[in-house]
Amino acid sequence: MTENVSAPPRSKIGVLIENHFDPTEYKLFNKMFPARGYQVDYISHLWGNVDSEYSSNPERDPATNKDRIELYVIVKTEINDVVLSDYKGFILIGAYAMDRLRYEAKPIKGQPNQSPAVKFLRKAMQTPGLKIGTICHSLWLLCADPQLLKGRKVTCANNLIYDVQNAGGDVQFDGDNGPRRLVVDQDLITAKHPADGITEEFIECFIREIERG
Questions:
Q1: How far is CA 203 from CA 31, 75, 76, 179, in A?
Q2: Domain architecture of the chain: domains with CATH
Q3: What is the mean pLDDT of the chain?
Q4: Does residue 2 surpass a pLDDT of 70?
């Protein structure tokens, strides 16, 4: 069981998380950001609890040929309490976690999504210089409000292309190879999929953009 990373920080990077998060990304965030002097703070909507425990996507165990959950994280930072100025940037972790974070307890017809995570992103993405990063499936969260994606150049996992386009995003392609590996559009950094070194490339790019200001 793993709790929030708390190494002495140069600056904090917030990672939005929920159940079914991508384990590869989680491991690399915890390795690469602290190695560069950044504290990683995991953030979620805790539903009134002091903390909540979230689990990674189940993965096939070759020894037993059965699915198993490898990683757990205890989150103590409530998204409604986050002070944006305490962070250099925020990353939306991949897999199915961001689909869970766009859940609304009481949706109302004709009203924009009011989930805490979407309301948070409306503020964060209007803050000049605050970097927002997504990878793989995590653009799902931005799809909950088309105003967050309208006209933005992005990339994502293949099976999210049409969700993103329907929400107004401009998915960038690499010829016949499908969506590009990595796209930077002002303060929004998006990556395709945690495979073939893309996660490492995404983290390095995110750090460069932060340090560039």
A1: 11, 21, 23, 18
A2: 2-212 (3.40.50.880)
A3: 93
A4: no
